[in-house]
Amino acid sequence: MIEAPSVPRLQTINLTKSFGELRACDGVSVNVNAGEILALLGENGSGKTTLVNMVAGLYKPDGGEVRVSGAPVAIHSPTDARRYGIGMIHQHFKLVEVFTAIENICLGMPRESTRRGLMARTLAFIEKYGLGVPLDMKAYRMSVAQKQTVEILKALVRGADILILDEPTAVLTPQESEKLFDILRKMKEAGCAIIIITHKLAEVMELSDRVSILRAGRNVGEFATAKTNPRELTERMVGRKVDLSIERVHAQKRPLLTLEDVSYAHAGVKLLDGVSFDVSGGEILGVAGVAGSGQKQLCEAIAGLTGITSGSIRLLGEELAHLSPREIYDRGVRLGFIPEDRLGMGLVGSMDVTDNILLREYRTQRGGFIRRKPVRRKAMTLVSDLAVVPPDINRAVSQLSGGNLQKVLLGRELMQSPQLLVTSYVVRGLDVNSSYTIYDLLNDRKKNGVGALFIGEDLDVLLELCDRILVMCAGRVTGILDAKHATRAQIGLLMTGSEAV
Ligand SMILES: Nc1ncnc2c1ncn2[C@@H]1O[C@H](COP(=O)(O)OP(=O)(O)OP(=O)(O)O)[C@@H](O)[C@H]1O
Ligand SMILES: [Mg+2]
Questions:
Q1: Which residues, 6+ apart, have CB-to-CB distance to 136 below 8 Å?
Q2: Whose CA is nearest to atom 27 of ligand 1?
Q3: What gap in Å lies between CA 378 and CA 188, rounded to an integer?
Q4: Which H or E element spans position 255?
Q5: Does the beta carbon of 46 sit less than 6 angstroms from any atom of ligand 1?
Q6: Helices H / strands E in the chain, number of each
Q7: Has this prediction a pTM greater than 0.85?
Q8: pLDDT confidence of residue 198
Q9: Which of 24, 27, 126, 439 could be a cystine partner for 14, CB 3.0 to 4.6 Å?
């Protein structure tokens, strides 16, 4: 049978899925053609992941239909999805850590496919799309980008030509994202149908052919990418006019944090190398750098999670180097910390919003009893200030969408009235609207004298929001710039270690 080009390779028609009372997808119809990249856009909790999970056989739809090349299909499991050529790259990878790349790729393949045959297929895909990954490296030794490449290879070797990627770039550096996009473009050229979920509008504009927008579980618009722009997309997404400029507020500055010649070595590698800088209360200091330049160690050293080899970290006159988070707290220093790895640290999935706040609060309560009522009130404020969806403080946080989880974590830290906030990629995974809510919140705290260390990856945001920008490369500070006068090019040079600007 010759396929008419007008029939979409993949189509959902009125797909519906509820979780209890909540209708996560309410009759969602999207389609993608062979040789096309569709971007799926929508606020946090708008139903994007739910939709693609139904297509991938992870959730059973309550209603509606999936069609592959025009034919209705029943997808009850990931195996079914695979049979129809559907491959899904989840945000949290599903590799066996102690297996090598090739072992992961071969895992679960039918017995008649020999290892040698699979190897040949794998190598052919590596060649065809330029997928660089050492096949005999064990998964636990791989970078996030390498793991993602293995997931893509797995899908391809299993015959996928419909590829769905759920926020693939949320975990990648800008350079790695570019590489992924090159690969996706080649796959599109080769006739694959690709759906990509992302919150980054620049990526939508750069990569996709069409954009489909969801709001509160419903289709609210579809655009040819070439005929739209970030503002129009954002307005459709949130359902009202939005202002995409970030305000840099002015605040009274006072001394707060000083680092002097801080170094930290682990297993013979210098992860922080003579780092010196200061942050004032009433200031947002941005930190730019290629991922892995020492940002993580810097944050953890300040928060008392790793020791340092030498140097001094003083917050409000107290020497913090070598103190544990508990000891820092006991000295009356209030430090809020949003780590890079937000699921690993900080929230307990099976507990609700209130209990997760309690986890952080119990120290401030006196006496042997824990009073839940004031904490419930705080939870309610958090949920409304940060527009957590659904606004339900009794819901287990594991049932929240990725972005809403992030809001709860941030809200909880802000609630401790910190004097210093250390935030690492705080808007990762947040929709445009929520990102701006967070910038406003940071500015609001700044006006109240709070100092912030803002580790970011979007240079435009760093330039607009921050007072100064510190640039790191290979554990060293390569420059500290006044954000009002700095340029992207300058920061870019410093990120690669060129100190002469
Ligand atoms: N397993 C689940 N149980 C209960 N509710 C769920 C479950 N999975 C998702 N939800 C709810 O369904 C809604 C849609 O969630 P979904 O994860 O699809 O959003 P999303 O558009 O992917 O958001 P994000 O951009 O934050 O990842 C949310 O309100 C979420 O809380
Ligand atoms: Mg999601």
A1: 100, 101, 102
A2: 402
A3: 48
A4: strand 254-266
A5: yes
A6: 16, 20
A7: no
A8: 92
A9: 27
Mean pLDDT of 458-467: 93
**Residue 389 in contact with ligand 1 by CB distance below 6 A:** yes
Record the tokens describing residue 173, joined without a space. 């550096």
Q: Cβ(479) to ligand 1 under 6 A?
A: no
Q: How many C-alpha atoms does 76 have within 13 Å on its Cβ side?
A: 1
pLDDT value for 161:
96
CA 343 from centroid of its chain's CA atoms: 11
* The pLDDT of residue 485: 95
Could you tell which of 12, 17, 19, 198 is best to mutate to test the pocket of ligand 1, judged by most ligand atoms within 8 Å of the CB?
A: 19
- Give the model's pLDDT for residue 265: 94
Grouping H, G, I as helix, E, B as strand and the rest as coil, residue 324 is: coil
**Ligand 2 centroid to residue 189 C-alpha, Å:** 27
Please write the tens of the pLDDT for every residue from 42-91: 999 999 999 999 999 999 999 999 999 999 999 999 999 999 999 999 87
What mean pLDDT comes out for the span 175-193?
93
Q: What is the pLDDT of residue 478?
A: 95
The DSSP code sequence of 24-77 is EEEEEEEEE-TTEEEEEEE-TTSSHHHHHHHHTTSS--SEEEEEETTEEE---S
**Does the beta carbon of 22 lie inside 6 Å of ligand 1?**
yes
Taking alpha carbons only, the member of 227, 169, 190 closest to residue 36 is 190
Residue 131: strand, helix, or coil: coil
- Residue 197 neighbours by CB under 8 Å, 6+ apart: 39, 40, 41, 48, 49, 52, 165, 166, 167
Q: Which ligand is nearest to the CA of 44?
A: 1
Regarding the beta carbon of 399 and ligand 1, being less than 6 Å apart is answered yes
CA of 234 to the centre of ligand 1 (A): 20
Q: What is the pLDDT of residues 365-394, one digit of tens each?
A: 556 667 788 889 989 998 998 888 888 888
The two tokens of residue 74 are 């029943």
Q: Which two tokens stand for residue 182?
A: 């090159």
Q: What is the mean pLDDT of residues 105-130?
A: 85
Closest Cα to atom 5 of ligand 1: 399
User: 254: CA distance to ligand 2 center in Å?
Assistant: 40
Domains of the chain: residue spans and CATH: 10-238 (3.40.50.300), 245-334+417-501 (3.40.50.300), 347-415 (no CATH)
Residues 235-288 pLDDT 10s: 999 888 877 788 888 888 889 999 999 999 988 889 999 999 999 999 999 999
433 CB within 6 A, ligand 1: no
Residues whose CB falls within 8 Å of the CB of residue 392, separated by 6 or more in sequence, listed in order: 353, 383
- Average pLDDT estimate for 169-174: 78
pLDDT of the residue at 500:
46
Q: 3-state DSSP call for residue 210?
A: strand
Integer distance in angstroms from the first to the last C-alpha of the chain?
62
pLDDT of residue 501: 43
What was the pLDDT predicted at 32? 98
Residue 281 structure tokens:
């209360």
